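1st attempt posting a full record on here, be nice pls
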Amino acid sequence: MAKMTTRSSPAKNPEHNSPPKSQGLTKNPSMELCCFTDPEIDQLRHYFLDGTIFRPFDSSMKSDCKFEVWVTIPAAPFQIDFIYPFLAFTQSFFTLTGLCYIQAMPMLWRVLYTLEHIIENEGIDIGLSELSHMYNLVSHRSHCFLFKRKPQKPHPLLKVTKNDTHWRNQFFFVRRTSIPNGSLLPT
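the predicted structure (as tokens):
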């Protein structure tokens, strides 16, 4: 039996009708309008716990929209097989830095994913201290962040720095109260 995706209905939910607030962080807002449609969101729903509520697709939404009820989620981590809730190392990174998930560029997600697998599969104890010895966290356009290797040091992880295109407008929204610790995530 197929799982049913839960969506919030605007007519039944007054919180949905409250307009989103752009934070004015995007330098080219037209390049960051949401293009991730409901069928694409449905393909990622299995990465979330049952009962997760997804906001219906709205092409007028920007990646820097701020909601009290919804959290902006980039598609990038789920396209490389992350599962929500994220594992401890990844979640502790976001808790420590205070970054929103949407601020992380795909390269940052690939580094976190690779390190999570090294921790889990190889049993190597890597913490945020080790991460800070390998990389600097740097801002790159529109308040987005990536990891930059430390100067004069070789790349600690190979093949995680590829150039991604069109990742900025691949995002969706999840109701905060429908995911673990959603109320604690930055707005």
